[in-house]
Predict the 3D structure of the following.
Amino acid sequence: MSERAAVQMLRAPYRGIARVAVLIGLAAFVLPFATVSCGGQKVLTGTGLNAITGGQYTVSGHANTYSGDVSFLLALLGGVIALAILFLPISARARATAAGLAGLWSAAMLLVGQAHLGAELVDGNVGNVVTVRWEPGFWIALAAFVAAAVTMGLELYAVRATPAGPSPGPGFRCRRPFHVRWWSRRAVSRLPQARC
């Protein structure tokens, strides 16, 4: 990677993109997440918040309740934690690692919640009459959390690909760090000399 490419990569607004992605993922929890149908009749359309808290629905005049799934709560908490990390004044490497892992956690918990709900319906489904259709809110949240994690991975790569920072001042010359020596000799010759 050339010096110019490394500088361009570092200037990319990864943190801003990740903030927007996480905000979109969190906002998707108020959109419809799933529609449950029984025998072709729509029984319930629940938002992401309903998936967390549970609720009531009626089938043939009978009121039923469903409990929320903790996996969706953990996905929401992971998104909130990722957003908080993205606003903290910490090093870029720590921020990218922590926020990326929180975004991956949120995406994984959404998939776990989807599997739990599917397994729960299969257990109580007699004659294949109950079906679940995952609505756009679920897919938007999943895509947004994955996008935030990928963006933080790109920021982590950009931070690792840049040369060592400025030297602490006049002193003894030392060997260049490995990631600087890895570049071509021409690119390295244009970089400031590393000092210890």
Q: What stands out?
A: The first strand starts at residue 32 and ends at 38. The chain has a mean pLDDT of 79.
